[in-house]
C-alpha cells in the first residue's frame, strides 16, 4: 500500500494467491494463469518491446537539469540540450528516441536516469553537510574565544571599579561630616532666634488687641443705643398712625355708603337727568360726528368705547369730588361709632391671632416629631448606604475585567453590524442599478418591437435627459393627480412604478398635510371675516319710522332683562363656588400644603371679575336713564309734530331745533347702547369661560386633595422606611408629570417658533425674488449693450464664483460637460473641474431662487452620468473620472450647504459661497447612491482586467528560477501535442496593471480614502482566486509552490508600501493566502507540528487546512507524504472552531464602500474654465 500511495498508477489488478483462500500460501501456476487471462504478460511484453516511458522536452529539462553540464546551459534551445544530455548519459541509442514534442524511453531507462539524479543529489548533500559542519565548528570556536575575552574584561573592570568605589566613599564621608557639623550649629542658632521673635510677636499682639477690643465695645454700644431709640420712636408712631387710619377708613366707608345710596336715588330722578344732560347735547353731536367719521374711515370699535368711557370717567370724578366734600362735612359726627367698630375689629383680630398661634404650635410640634423620625431614618439609610457601597466596590473589583472584555466585544459587534448594514444597503443599491439597467434594456426592446413603418411623433418639449428622472423635486407645490399617476404607471410599466412608489407616497402624504393646512387657514379666514362683519357699524344714521324705534326699544329692554338675569345667576354661582372653596380649604388645610395658594389665586380672580361686573352694571344704569329720557323726548316730539307741520314757514323756531337735537341724541344713544350690549355679551361670554375654567381647576384641586389625603392615610399605615420610599416615589412621579408638562410646553413653543421662522423665510424669499428680478433686469440690459465674448474669461475683481446660463442652454451644457467629455481633454486642468463648474451653475440658480432650474440641472446631470457609464461600461479611466467628479460634487454640496458640521475647515471666502435658499439633502443621498454604483462598476472593470492574470502569475510562473523545476515523482503536466505557446503572465504584469490603476485614479483627483478601498477590494480578489485554485489543484500543493507564493506576496506587500497603501487593509485580506503558503512549508510529522499549524493558520478554516494537507504532494523520495494520523490529529485539535462550512472563498464578495467627507481648499472664484470645453455660453457672475 505504501508503494501504491507513493506512485500514481492508472489502474490496479488484484491476483488471488490460491483458490482455497489460505494464508501464506502461493500457487505460481494459478497466478500465471490469472496474469495471462488479464493480459498483463502481453502488456509487459509489448511495453518491453516498445517505448513505455515518455517525457516532454520542457518537463525532461526541468526534471533532469541537475545532470546537464554547465557549458550546455549556455544554449537556449532546450531540445538540443536534451539531445546532448541523453547521448552523454545513455550510450545505447536504441534505448531512447526523440519525437517532435516528447522523448520516448525503453523500459528501465527512466529508472536509470532517476538513479543518476539521486546520486547527483546525494553527492551535493554530502558536500553541503561537510561545509555546514565545518562552519558550525568554526562558529563554536569563535564563540568560546569571545566568551573568554569577555570574562577577562569583566574581571579586570570589576577590580578597577572596586578601588574607585573605595576612594569615593572615603571622600564622601569627609564631606558628610563637614556638612553635618555645620547644619547642627546652624539649627541651634535658628531655634534660639525663632523663639525670641515669637515671644516679641505675641507680646506686641496682646497689647494691640486690648486697645482694639476697648474701641470696638464703645462703638457697638453707641450703635445699639441708636437703633433701640429709633425703634421705640417708630413703634410709637406706627401705633398712632394705624389707629388713625382705621378710624378714618371706618368713617369714610360709612359716609361713602350714604352718599352712594343718595346718588342712586338721585340718578333715577328726572332732575338729575336734566343736570346730567346739561352740556351733553353739544358733546353728543360731537361724538356723532366722530362716529360718522370713524365709520367712513373703517376705524376699529375700541376708539368709540374710549370716547364713551372718557365721559363716564368725568362723571365719576365729579361724583368722587362730591363724596369727598360730603365726607369732610360729616366726618366729625361719626367719630364715636367708628371707634366702637375699630375696637370690635381689634377683638376679632386678636381672636384670629390666638387661633392661628394654636394651629402654628400644633403644626410645629408635629413637624419636630417628623423631623426626628426623618433623622433616625436618614441615619439608618446612611448605614445601609455604606454597606451597599462596600458591596458595590467588591462587585466592581470582581467585574472590572469582565466589563472591559464585554465592552471590547460589544464594540467589535457594533462595528461588525455597521459593516453588515452598510454592505446590505450597497447590495440593495447594486440590485437597484441592475434592475434599472434591466428595465432600460426591456424598454428599448419594447420600443423596437412597437415601432411601425409609419412616422411616430413625440412631444417636442420632452427632454431625453429628464425622461429618466425619478428623484424628488425641491418644489412641493407641484403634485400630480391620481389619474396622472395611473397613466404614468401604464406608460412606464410596473417595475418602474414600484421603484417610484416610495416617492409617490411621500408626495401623497405631503399633499394631505397641505390640504389640512389649507382647511385650517380657510376656517381662520372665515372667523376673521365674521368678526370684522360684526365690528363694522352702520355707515348711515337710521331714518326709520316710529314703529321700528318702538321695536328696537322693546328688543333692547328684553335684552337688558335677560342680561340682568344671567348676571344674577352668575353672581350666585360665584358666591357658591367661593363658599365651597373656602369650606374645602378649611377642611383640608393640614393635608395639602399647596391648596391655600391656589385658593387665594382663585379668590383674586373672582374678586377682579366681580369688580368689573359692578362697573359694567353702573354703566348700564346710566345708559338706561339716558334711554328713558330720550324716550320721553321722542313722545314729546310726537305731540308737537302737528304744530311743527303747521308752522313750517318758521324754520328758526326753538322747538324744531330741540326736536332735531333730541332725535340725533337718541340715535347716538341707540348706537352706544348696541355697542355696550355687544361688549356686555362679550364680557358675559368671557365670564362664563372663566367660570368654567375655575370650575375645572376646582375639580382638579378636589381630586388632588382627595388623592393626597388617600396617600397620607396610606403612608400612616406603612413602616417608617416604607414611608420614606413611598414619599420618594410620589415626589418622582410628581416631577415626571411636571417634566412632561414642560416638554409639551416646549414643543408648543418650538412649533410656534418654526411657524414664525417659516413666515420669515417666506418674506425673505419674496424680498430675494424682488432683488433677483431687479438683478436679472439689469443683467439683461447689460447683455444687450455689450457684445458676447468668444471664450469665458475670468474677471478677478467681479467674479463671485457663480456661472449663469439660460434654460435653453442646459442641454448643451450637459452635452459638452458630461456626455461628450473625454478625460484626456482635461489632462492639465484642475482635478474634478466638471464638478466645480456644475456647482457654480447650481449656486447661481440658488442665488436667483429658481427651484425648477436647480431640479432640472441636477436631474440632467445624474442622468447624463448614467448614460456615459452605460456607454463606457468597460473603460476604467472614464469610470474613475466620473467617480472622482461625482464624489467631488457630493463634497461641494456638503461643504457649502450651510451646516456647521461641514463648515469647520472653510475659510471666510468659502463661507460666502454657501447655498442661501435650498436644502439639497435629498440630492446628496441620490449622489451618494450614484457614487456607490460607479464604485461597483469600477471594481468590476478592474477585476475583469486582473482575474486572467492571477493564477498564472501567482501559482504557475517561476518567480524564483530553478525552484519550480523540482516536480513530484511521476508528475505529468497536461499539455497538448501542439508546439508550446507561451500565454502565461508573470507577477510584473499584475504590478504594471495596478500601477496604471493607481496612476489614473491619482491623476483624476480621486479621494485617497477611496483609492485605499479600491486596492483593498482588488487584493481580496487576488487572495480569493489564488486560494481557490490552490484548494482545487493537486499539482500546485507542494513545498516549492509555497516558496514561490510567499515570494510573490512579499513583492505585492513591497508595492503597497512603496505607494503608501499599506494602511488600506489590503495586507490583512491576503492573510489566508500567506498562511496557506506557510502551511505548505512547515513540517508535518509530530504532534508539536500539528499544534504549530493550528496556532498559525487562524485565517484558514478547518476544511481548508485538511484539504491542503490531503492535496500535499512530496517533491522527491527524500520527503514523506502527510500521514492520515497527522491529518486526524489536526482535525481533533480544530474541532472546537466554529468555522463556516464553505470550502472556497467568494471572490465576488465586495466590501462596503465609505465616502468620507473631504472638503476642498479651492475657492470658486479662483477656478479657470479652459476654452477646450466649449462653454462660451456661460457667464461669470
Task: Give an account of the 3D structure.
This protein is mainly alpha-helical. Among the domains are: 140-267, no CATH class; 500-535; 546-720, Substrate Binding Domain Of Dnak, Chain:A, Domain 2, CATH 1.20.1270; 1008-1154, no CATH class. 73% of the residues lie in helices and 1% in strands. It has a three-stranded antiparallel beta sheet. Helix 14 runs antiparallel to helix 15 (595-639) and helix 24 runs antiparallel to helix 27. It is elongated, with a radius of gyration of 55 Å. Mean pLDDT is 75; it is low at 452-505, 536-548, 588-598, 638-657, 782-797 and 966-982.
Rg calculated over all Cα atoms: 55 Å
Mean pLDDT: 75
Largest sheet: 3 strands, antiparallel
Q: Per DSSP, what share of the residues sits in E-state strands of 2 or more residues?
A: under 5%
Please list the strands of the largest sheet in the order they lie side by side. Answer: 1-3-2
Q: What is the CATH topology descriptor of the domain at 546-720?
A: Substrate Binding Domain Of Dnak, Chain:A, Domain 2
Keywords: Actin-binding, ATP-binding, Calmodulin-binding, Coiled coil, Motor protein, Myosin, Nucleotide-binding, Repeat
Biased composition (Polar residues): 459-479
Family: Belongs to the TRAFAC class myosin-kinesin ATPase superfamily. Myosin family.
GO molecular function: actin binding; ATP binding; calmodulin binding; cytoskeletal motor activity
Amino acid at each position: 500500500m505504501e508503494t501504491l500511495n507513493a506512485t500514481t498508477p492508472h489502474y490496479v489488478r488484484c491476483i488471488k494467491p490460491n483458490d482455497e483462500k489460505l494464508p501464506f500460501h502461493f500457487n505460481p501456476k494459478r497466478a500465471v494463469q490469472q496474469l495471462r487471462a488479464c493480459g498483463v504478460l502481453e502488456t509487459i511484453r509489448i511495453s518491453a518491446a516498445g517505448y513505455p516511458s515518455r517525457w516532454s522536452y520542457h518537463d525532461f529539462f526541468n526534471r533532469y537539469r541537475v545532470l546537464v553540464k554547465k557549458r550546455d546551459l549556455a544554449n537556449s534551445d532546450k531540445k538540443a540540450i536534451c539531445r546532448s544530455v541523453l547521448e552523454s548519459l545513455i550510450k545505447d541509442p536504441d534505448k531512447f528516441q526523440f519525437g517532435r514534442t516528447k522523448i520516448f524511453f525503453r523500459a528501465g531507462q527512466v529508472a536509470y536516469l532517476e538513479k543518476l539524479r539521486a546520486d547527483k543529489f546525494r553527492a551535493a548533500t554530502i558536500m553541503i553537510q561537510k561545509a555546514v559542519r565545518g562552519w558550525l565548528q568554526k562558529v563554536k570556536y569563535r564563540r568560546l574565544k569571545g566568551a573568554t575575552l569577555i570574562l577577562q574584561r569583566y574581571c579586570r573592570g570589576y577590580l578597577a571599579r572596586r578601588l574607585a568605589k573605595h576612594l569615593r566613599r572615603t571622600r564622601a564621608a569627609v564631606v558628610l561630616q563637614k556638612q553635618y557639623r555645620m547644619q547642627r550649629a546652624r539649627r541651634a542658632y535658628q531655634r534660639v532666634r525663632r523663639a525670641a521673635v515669637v515671644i516679641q510677636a505675641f507680646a506686641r499682639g496682646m497689647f494691640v488687641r486690648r486697645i482694639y477690643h476697648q474701641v470696638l465695645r464703645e462703638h457697638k454700644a453707641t450703635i445699639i443705643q441708636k437703633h433701640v431709640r429709633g425703634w421705640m420712636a417708630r413703634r410709637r408712631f406706627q401705633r398712632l398712625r394705624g389707629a388713625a387710619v382705621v378710624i378714618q377708613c371706618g368713617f369714610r366707608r360709612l359716609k361713602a355708603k350714604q352718599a352712594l345710596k343718595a346718588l342712586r336715588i338721585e340718578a333715577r330722578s328726572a332732575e338729575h337727568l336734566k343736570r346730567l344732560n346739561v352740556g351733553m347735547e353739544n358733546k353728543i353731536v360731537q361724538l356723532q360726528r366722530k362716529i360718522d367719521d370713524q365709520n367712513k374711515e373703517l376705524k376699529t370699535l375700541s376708539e368709540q368705547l374710549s370716547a364713551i368711557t372718557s365721559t363716564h370717567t368725568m362723571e365719576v370724578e365729579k361724583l368722587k369730588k362730591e363724596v369727598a366734600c360730603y365726607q369732610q362735612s360729616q366726618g366729625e359726627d361719626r367719630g364715636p361709632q367708628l371707634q366702637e367698630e375699630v375696637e370690635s375689629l381689634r377683638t376679632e383680630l386678636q381672636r384670629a391671632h390666638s387661633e392661628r398661634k394654636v394651629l402654628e404650635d400644633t403644626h410645629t410640634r408635629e413637624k419636630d416629631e417628623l423631623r426626628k423620625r426623618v433623622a433616625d431614618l436618614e441615619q439608618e439609610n446612611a448605614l445601609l448606604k455604606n454597606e451597599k457601597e462596600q458591596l458595590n466596590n467588591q462587585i466592581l473589583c470582581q467585574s472590572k475585567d469582565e466589563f472591559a472584555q464585554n465592552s471590547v466585544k460589544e464594540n467589535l459587534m457594533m462595528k461588525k453590524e455597521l459593516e453588515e448594514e452598510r454592505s446590505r444597503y450597497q447590495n440593495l443599491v447594486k440590485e437597484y442599478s441592475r434592475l434599472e439597467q434591466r428595465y432600460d434594456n426591456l424598454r428599448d426592446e419594447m420600443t423596437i418591437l412597437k415601432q411601425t413603418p409609419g412616422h411616430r411623433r413625440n412631444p417636442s418639449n420632452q427632454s431625453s435627459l429628464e425622461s429618466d428622472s425619478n428623484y424628488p423635486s425641491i418644489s412641493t407645490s407641484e403634485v400630480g393627480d391620481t389619474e396622472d399617476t395611473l397613466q404614468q404607471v401604464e406608460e412606464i410599466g410596473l417595475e418602474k412604478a414600484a421603484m417610484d412608489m416610495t416617492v409617490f407616497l411621500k408626495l401623497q402624504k405631503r399633499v394631505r398635510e397641505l390640504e389640512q393646512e389649507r382647511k385650517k387657514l380657510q376656517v381662520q379666514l372665515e372667523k376673521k371675516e365674521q368678526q370684522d362683519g360684526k365690528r363694522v357699524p352702520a355707515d348711515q344714521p337710521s331714518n326709520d319710522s316710529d314703529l321700528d324705534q318702538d321695536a328696537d326699544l322693546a328688543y333692547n329692554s328684553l335684552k337688558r332683562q335677560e342680561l340682568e338675569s344671567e348676571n344674577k345667576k352668575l353672581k350666585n354661582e360665584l358666591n357658591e363656588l367661593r363658599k365651597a372653596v373656602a369650606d374645602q380649604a378649611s377642611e383640608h388645610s393640614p393635608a395639602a400644603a399647596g391648596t391655600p395658594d391656589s385658593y387665594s389665586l382663585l379668590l383674586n380672580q373672582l374678586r377682579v371679575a366681580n369688580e368689573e361686573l359692578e362697573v359694567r352694571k353702573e354703566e348700564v344704569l346710566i345708559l338706561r336713564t339716558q334711554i328713558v329720557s330720550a324716550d320721553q323726548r321722542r313722545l314729546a316730539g310726537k305731540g308737537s309734530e302737528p304744530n311743527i307741520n303747521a308752522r313750517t314757514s318758521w324754520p328758526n323756531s326753538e322747538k324744531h331745533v330741540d326736536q332735531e337735537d333730541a332725535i340725533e341724541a337718541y340715535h347716538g344713544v341707540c348706537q352706544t347702547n348696541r355697542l355696550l350690549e355687544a361688549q356686555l355679551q362679550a364680557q358675559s361670554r368671557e365670564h362664563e369661560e372663566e367660570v368654567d375654567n375655575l370650575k375645572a381647576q376646582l375639580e382638579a384641586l378636589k381630586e388632588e386633595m382627595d388623592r393626597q389625603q388617600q396617600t397620607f392615610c396610606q403612608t400612616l399605615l406603612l413602616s417608617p422606611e416604607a414611608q420614606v420610599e413611598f414619599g420618594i416615589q410620589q415626589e418622582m412621579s410628581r416631577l415626571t408629570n411636571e417634566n412632561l408638562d414642560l416638554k409639551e410646553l416646549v414643543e408648543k413653543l418650538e412649533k410656534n417658533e418654526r411657524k414664525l421662522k417659516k413666515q420669515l423665510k417666506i418674506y425673505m424669499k419674496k424680498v430675494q425674488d424682488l432683488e433677483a428680478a431687479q438683478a436679472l433686469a439689469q443683467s439683461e440690459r447689460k447683455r444687450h449693450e455689450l457684445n458676447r465674448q468668444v471664450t469665458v474669461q475670468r474677471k478677478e475683481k467681479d467674479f463671485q464664483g457663480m456661472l449663469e446660463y439660460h434654460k435653453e442652454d442646459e442641454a448643451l451644457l450637459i452635452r459638452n460637460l458630461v456626455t461628450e467629455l473625454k478625460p484626456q481633454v482635461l489632462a492639465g486642468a484642475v482635478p474634478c473641474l466638471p464638478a466645480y463648474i456644475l456647482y457654480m451653475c447650481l449656486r447661481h440658480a440658488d442665488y436667483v431662487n429658481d427651484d425648477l432650474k436647480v431640479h432640472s440641472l441636477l436631474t440632467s446631470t445624474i442622468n447624463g452620468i448614467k448614460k456615459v457609464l452605460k456607454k463606457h461600461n468597460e473603460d476604467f479611466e472614464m469610470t474613475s473620472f466620473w467617480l472622482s467628479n461625482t464624489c467631488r460634487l457630493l463634497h461641494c454640496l456638503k461643504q457649502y450647504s450651510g451646516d456647521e458640521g461641514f463648515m469647520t475647515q472653510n475659510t471666510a471666502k468659502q463661507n460666502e459661497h454657501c447655498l442661501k435658499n435650498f436644502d439639497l439633502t435629498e440630492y446628496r443621498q441620490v449622489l451618494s447612491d450614484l457614487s456607490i454604483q460607479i464604485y461597483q462598476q469600477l471594481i468590476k472593470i478592474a477585476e475583469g482586467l486582473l482575474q486572467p492574470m492571477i493564477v498564472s502569475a501567482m501559482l504557475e510562473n517561476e518567480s524564483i528560477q530553478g525552484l519550480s523545476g523540482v516536480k513530484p515523482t511521476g508528475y505529468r503536466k497536461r499539455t497538448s501535442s501542439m508546439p508550446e505557446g507561451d500565454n502565461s503572465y508573470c507577477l510584473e504584469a499584475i504590478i504594471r496593471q495596478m500601477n496604471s490603476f493607481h496612476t489614473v485614479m491619482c491623476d483624476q483627483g480621486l479621494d485617497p480614502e477611496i483609492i485605499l478601498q479600491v486596492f483593498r477590494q482588488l487584493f481580496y480578489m487576488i487572495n480569493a482566486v489564488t486560494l481557490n485554485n490552490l484548494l482545487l489543484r493537486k499539482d500546485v500543493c507542494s513545498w516549492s509552490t509555497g516558496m514561490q507564493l510567499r515570494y510573490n506576496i512579499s513583492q505585492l506587500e513591497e508595492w503597497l508600501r512603496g505607494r503608501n497603501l499599506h494602511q488600506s487593509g489590503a495586507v490583512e485580506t491576503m492573510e489566508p493566502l500567506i498562511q496557506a503558503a506557510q502551511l505548505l512549508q512547515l513540517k508535518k510529522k509530530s504532534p508539536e507540528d500539528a499544534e504549530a499549524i493550528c496556532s498559525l493558520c487562524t485565517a484558514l478554516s478547518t476544511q481548508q487546512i485538511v484539504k491542503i494537507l490531503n492535496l500535499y504532494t512530496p517533491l522527491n523520495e527524500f520527503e514523506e507524504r502527510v500521514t492520515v494520523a497527522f491529518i486526524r490529529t489536526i482535525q481533533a485539535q480544530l474541532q472546537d472552531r466554529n468555522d463556516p462550512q464553505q470550502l472556497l472563498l467568494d471572490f465576488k464578495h465586495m466590501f462596503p464602500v465609505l465616502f468620507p467627507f473631504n472638503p476642498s481648499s479651492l475657492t470658486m472664484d479662483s477656478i479657470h474654465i479652459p476654452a477646450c470645453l466649449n462653454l462660451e455660453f456661460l457667464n461669470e457672475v
